[in-house]
Structures are given as structure tokens and as C-alpha cells.
Design brief:
The protein has 365 residues and is of the alpha/beta class. The chain folds into 2 domains: 1-163, Leucine-rich repeat, LRR (right-handed beta-alpha superhelix); 205-361, Toll/interleukin-1 receptor homology (TIR) domain (Rossmann fold), CATH 3.40.50. The chain has helices spanning 126-132, 170-194, 196-206, 230-242, 253-256, 263-272, 284-288, 290-306, 321-324, 330-336, 346-361, and strands at residues 18-20, 28-29, 42-44, 52-53, 66-68, 76-77, 90-92, 113-115, 123-125, 138-140, 148-150, 219-224, 250-251, 275-282, 311-315, 340-341. The protein starts with 17 loop residues before the first strand and ends with a helix. The relative contact order is 0.06.
Amino acid sequence: MGRNLSCIPPSIPSSIQTLDFSFNVLKHLQKTVFPVLSFLRVLDLSRCQIEHIENNTFYNVKNLTTLILTGNPITYFGPGCLNSLHNLQRLVLVDAGLSSLQLQMNNLTKLRELRIGTNNIQSMSLPSFMSTFKDFSLLDLHANNISIIKTDHTAVLREIDFDTDSCVHKKRLTMVLSVCFVTVVVLLSLLVYRFQFYLQYCCILLRGYRSPGQQECSYDAFVIFSSYDEVWVMNELMENLENGVPPIQLCLHMRDFQAGKSIASNIIDEGIMGSRKIIVVVSQHFIDSAWCRFEFELAQSRFMMERNANIIIIILEDVEERKSKKVFGLHKHLKKNTYLKWSRDPLSNMRFWIRLRKAIIATNH
């Protein structure tokens, strides 16, 4: 049909079966506004700015099987406007300004599909509705504000499609989802920041784990220590071991780590996996260092994977037992394994270097 018509033309052929009158300007559908159209089956009145529908509006098109009234700001339905549509099977009232289901539809015994989504319906009574439409196939209630569904134990839902998810208020749903999304992002960010070292470790291991037995080690021992203890490491540990006979090659992070490579990769590739033994220099500074704790936990991981990876612990200064528990596994390791304790006493100092050198040179079995 032509567009922008303000009334139903009387010259419509009586044999027509489908009439699309959408996007016109009708506003007010009066009684018997349609000519006699006995063969009309489908009537589309979408977006016609219809506000009032009076009784007997569809009297002359009583053989309709489909009536579409989508997108009309309907404020008044005549109580009996649908009474003559005994053959109606599909009724579409999407976005039609409905605030309730107070239409008289008792005569619509053949109705199988009712679409009333995107309206402002807040409640409905299932018992009376289901008693009328026992053989319904689809009921579309999406995007309404339904908060109350009155029912009883005798109401039986058959093959009706209730779009219950879409009945939730869109703004409320969007707000809840947004809050949940932000919360998850914040929690994930905190977890990534807290366990960033371990995530890097997992990524490196996923590239392919190789034990020192499967690769040629570049160093005799990797030294885990706090930068605050660097003077002792350089002046005592490195001087006595690397310049002794035979010389023992140490892996020291400030000297031997590859430039441009991530710290975690250097710790694993150059230090833990590239050295036969691991020396841990324990002090209060070691306990307080996140990097030292990370390196020690990686060393323990290697020990658990190989069961023969030696960890040699040097107690540079006494640490309270409760503080040693701050480093995961350290207190337990000290209880179960022999460790070396640094002393300035010349005799004790001599025994210290002999025992340390022997522990490093010893071959694992």
C-alpha cells in the first residue's frame, strides 16, 4: 500500500489476502474502519501511530489469522475490539504501550502465538491465561517489567516460550553486569600483580622444561642473596670460591644475567637451570626481599622436580624463627637439612670454606 495514508482506502480488492499498511498515520481506528475483506488473512498495522482502537474495528476482517500492531502508542483498546477474530492464530503487540493484559481474548480460541514484548506489563495471572489458551505454542514477554506472576498449583505450562531472561529490567541487568565485570578485572589485576613472578615462571616452564642433567651447566652454583649482602658475596664468597683451587664458577645476577632478558627468565635459565647447585645466603635482608623469596621458591620447585637438586644454605646472620617462616619452605628446610653458618672466628671460618667447597664439588647421585 502507499505510505503516509491517514485512512483505510475503501477500494481495496475484496480478494486480497495480505494487507501491509505499516508506517502510515491512522491514530484512531473507528468501528468497521475496514471494508469487507473476507479473504484477508494477514494485516500489518505496524508503526501507524495508532492510539485508539474501538470495538468492532476488525468486524469486516473477521477471518484474519495474523494481526500485527507493533510500534503503536496504543492508549485505548476497546474491550471487544478482538471479539470478531475467531480465526486469529498470531497476535503481535510488541512495543505497543501495553501496561497490562486486560484485553478480552476469550473468543480467540485458535490463538497460538502472542508477542507482547517491550511493553510495560508488570504482572500477569497465569491460571486465567492458561485456562483460555490451552494449546499455546509461543508467548513472548521479553523486555517487560514483570515482577509478579500470579499462579496456583493447577496452572500447567505446556509448550510456551517464556523469555524469562529478557524480563529482567535492562538497566538493572546492565548495572549488575558492569559491577561484576569491574570487580573481576580489579581482582584479576591484583592477583596478577601479587603473583607476577610465578606467572612468569609458569610461562617459562610451558616453553619446555629441561633439567640440568639434560643440558650442559654453565655454572657450578647459582647464588641467591640480597643486594644488601653484595659486599660479603663479592669480597668473601666469590673471592674464596672462584679464586680457590680448583676454581668454582658462580652465577651472580649483577654479573652474569643477560642484558635485555626478563629477570624471571634469567633466574630460571641462567641461574636455576644453568647451575649444578644453588647457594642461598640467608640474612634479614634476604627475608625481606620479594625477589629472594621468589628465587628460593623456584629453587625448591627444581628440587621437587628432580629430587636431587642440592640447595646449600648459608646463614649469614641469625634470623628469628618466626621471621624465617615468612619465606615459604625455608623453616622446614632448615629443620630437615644441614646448613652452614658464617663465622668471623678464623678456625670456624676455615672449616666453613672447606665444607662449602666440598658441598659444591660433590656429585649428585
